[in-house]
Amino acid sequence: MRALILSSIIFALTLAGIFLGTLLRRSLPEHHLDKHAKDVVRLGVASTRAPFETDGTAEPVYLEIQKLSPHDNVQRSLQSRAVQISNDLAQVRFLLFVESENLMPTPFLAVLAFWLMIIFASFSLFSPLNVTVVISLCLFALSAACSIFLILELSRPFTGLMSISSTPLRNALEQM
């Protein structure tokens, strides 16, 4: 239920961003809405792409450790220890993701909601609103809110509206 409430709030905030952009467009002088201002806003929105990409360095390091060819017992022991440490780090990292109770931190959601509000405000800042634009922006806002809802729901697979049944796992455990 928390996911539905949060995604509804984010939907309302994106709609507020649309209407904030409309109010700004009506109240700002014309020279603030020229081509140069539009380019700056586009640049600001485009610079926020893919902020949380991982660099994927763990697997290549592990593969490089495996490629090492030790020449004596000390080097074999060191290679074995490096492999063990690499595996331990991977397990700890996995446990951090699996055992984290709050997979989507509140500050992240707040920043995401603010970011979406700014983006939707910029969409309506430079375009006069007519029925087609309003319906399109509302559908885009609903789509963004629904995707956040899905992310929040799928982060807790055994609870919520879209839950995975635990019956097959329980049946498998009974057989053991």
Unreliable residue runs: 49-54
Query: Which range best describes the helical content: under 10%, 10-25%, 25-40%, 40-55%, 55-70% or over 70%?
Result: over 70%
Rounded average pLDDT: 78
Number of helical runs? 7
Rg value: 25 Å
The secondary-structure class comes to mainly alpha
Number of domains: 1
State the total count of DSSP E strands: 0
Helix and strand succession?
HHHHHHH
Strand content: under 5%
- C-alpha geometry: elongated
| Straight-line N-to-C gap | 34 Å
Major sheet: none
Keywords:
single chain; 176 residues; mainly alpha; 0% strand; elongated
Topology record:
Layout: H1 2-27, H2 35-46, H3 58-67, H4 73-99, H5 106-125, H6 131-154, H7 167-175
Walkthrough of the structure:
The chain has one domain (2-175). Helices cover 73% and strands 0% of the residues. The protein has helices spanning 2-27, 35-46, 58-67, 73-99, 106-125, 131-154, 167-175. α1 packs parallel to α5, α3 packs antiparallel against α4 and α5 packs antiparallel against α6 (131-154). The chain is elongated. The two termini are 34 Å apart.
Task: Please outline what is shown here.
The protein contains seven helices and no strands.
